[in-house]
Amino acid sequence: MRFDTIIRNGTVATASDTFVCDIGIRDGRIAALSTGLEDADEVIDATGLFVLPGGIDSHVHLDQPSGDGIVMADDFDSGTRSAAIGGNSTVLAFCMQEKGQTLREALKVYHEKAEGKCHVDVAFHLVITDPTPEVLGQELPALVEDGYTSLKVFMTYEGLRLRDDQILDTLDAARRTGALVMVHCENEDAIRYLIGRHEEEGKFAPKYHATTRPIPAEREATHRALSLAEIVDVPIVIVHVSNREAMEEIRRARQRGQKIAGETCPQYLMLTADDLDRDALEGAKYVCSPPPRDKASQDACWEGLEQNVFDLFSSDHCPFRYEDVHGKLNEKGKRHFRWIPNGIPGVATRLPILFSEGVMKGRITLNQFVAQTATNHAKLYGLYPRKGTICVGADADLALWDPNRQVTITNDILAHGSDYTPYEGVEVRGWPVRLFIRGNSVMESGAMVEEAPSGHYLSRQRSSLVSKPA
Questions:
Q1: Alpha carbons 218 and 155: distance in angstroms, whole number
Q2: For residues 371 and 53, is the Cβ–Cβ distance under 8 A?
Q3: Helix (H, G, I), strand (E, B) or coil at 447
Q4: CA-based diameter of the chain, in Å?
């Protein structure tokens, strides 16, 4: 058999195995895994490199409405370019339904935003903010059949959050259609109460974003979301967990037999609430929800990764510019933490941070790294085995990693639209040096091989976590 490309002598890792072999690529797919492969248009010597599945970041916000006068820093062009720089071959972005809007209308808007601009492959989660009988009973079943097989609901943010009865209705619709529901767990009423107290005391600085969204507000909402899912008897994903208390709710639910997936993010391993208390308004750079916690919470999140309580390690990339009246330093945000846009950039730094801090420091194995950054995402969100693994027949989405390359993270190497990274100056060991998507070389040595976007939209199957529709 003649191949388009052979990647030779690399150390190949999947979620379960590590071995040295050659990879033969033909027509965009992995055609052979063997030794001594010959006859290809291009042969790449990967001696000394790891060959891993391209990363899948299943929690990414791009070109999303973010409030009056606020503009997100990344559109699909810059955001997916940054994803590729960081070794990702697929991202799952959010399609935000606005009040009064149908899901079809929202999808039309987001597909137009993404069309012809994506440097990596892309799929959409549906964010349900207006769960009318028409949306849940008519639109959703048809859209799930069309390959939009995951939803997200919020328990916080006025205008986005759903009441418990609405969450139950949405979970029941997911059970009937076979969709998988992601939940942002924070208690909005508790947060609003604490904001009111802070305002009475004149506490408006960025650091008070963290103290108005304390661990109990996340823990309680996590417990409530799990309880609602148990009532309906449907699996859910608890996203961006920041602390032990919420993590233990997931662990206990699993012990009761619930089908639950958990997710954490780099900010909960690398940042703390002290970062929001930096001089002047520097703390605004670190405002996200849930907020970073403390060292004990960092340790707990590492434990969750080590013990596989967390299935997913995602970026929750939600970028804004700092020095910008349409970003973190908007006029109202300068005066009150409530108006600082929630979110930080991280799609390019997710993989290097976990590789360096996790694999290279012995906290997790290389196989866990692959599972938590690619394979589990593909399985949970209906892309496996086409994506997320290295096997014959899979898309040739491959990242070549130099495990000994030392890099100091600086904003200028990340290619995103934000004017800062919260990880400026962090030194990492291990970096993706080349990326293939469907057999095409798209990134090499930190730069795009071709400027023209070549990413595809992905229709998805149902999650491995869900049963057949009821």
A1: 10
A2: no
A3: strand
A4: 74
Residue type, 163: R
Structure tokens at 175: 């059970």
Contact, 413 vs 116, CB < 8 A? no
Q: What is the DSSP string of 5-33?
A: EEEEEEEEE-SS-EEEEEEEEETTEEEEE
Quick one: which H or E segment has residue 362?
Answer: none
Task: For residue 124, give the 3-state DSSP assignment.
Answer: strand
Q: How many CB atoms lie within 10 A of CB 255?
A: 8
Amino acid at 71: V
As a dihedral over the C-alpha atoms of residue 10, residue 458, residue 348, residue 368, rounded to 10 degrees, the angle is: -50
CA distance 405 to 301: 26
The DSSP symbol for 341 reads P
Helix (H, G, I), strand (E, B) or coil at 168: helix
213's CB contacts (< 8 A; 6+ apart) are 186, 191, 194, 289, 290, 291
CA proximity to 465, closest of 163, 263, 221? 263
DSSP letters spanning 57-75 = EEEE--S---STT---S--
Residue entry with tokens 């799952």: 92
- Distance of alpha carbon 171 from alpha carbon 179, whole angstroms: 9
Residue-by-residue pLDDT tens, the chain, 470 positions: 899 999 999 999 999 999 999 999 999 999 999 999 999 999 999 999 999 999 999 999 999 999 889 999 999 999 999 999 999 999 999 999 999 999 999 999 999 999 999 999 999 999 999 999 999 999 999 999 999 999 999 999 988 999 999 999 999 999 999 999 999 999 999 999 999 999 999 999 999 999 999 999 999 999 999 999 999 999 999 999 999 999 999 999 999 999 999 999 999 999 999 999 999 899 999 999 999 999 999 999 999 999 999 999 999 999 999 999 999 999 999 999 999 999 999 999 999 999 999 999 999 999 999 999 999 999 999 999 999 999 999 999 999 999 999 999 999 999 999 999 999 999 999 999 999 999 999 999 999 998 899 999 999 999 999 987 76
Q: At what angle do helices 244-255 and 215-232 cross, to 10 degrees?
A: 20
DSSP secondary structure string for all residues of 125-152: EEE-S---HHIIIIIHHHHHHTT--EEE
d(CA 360, CA 51): 16
Neighbours of 402 (CB within 10 A): 18
Burial 331-348, CB ≥16 within 10 A → b, else e: eebbebbebbbbbbbbbb
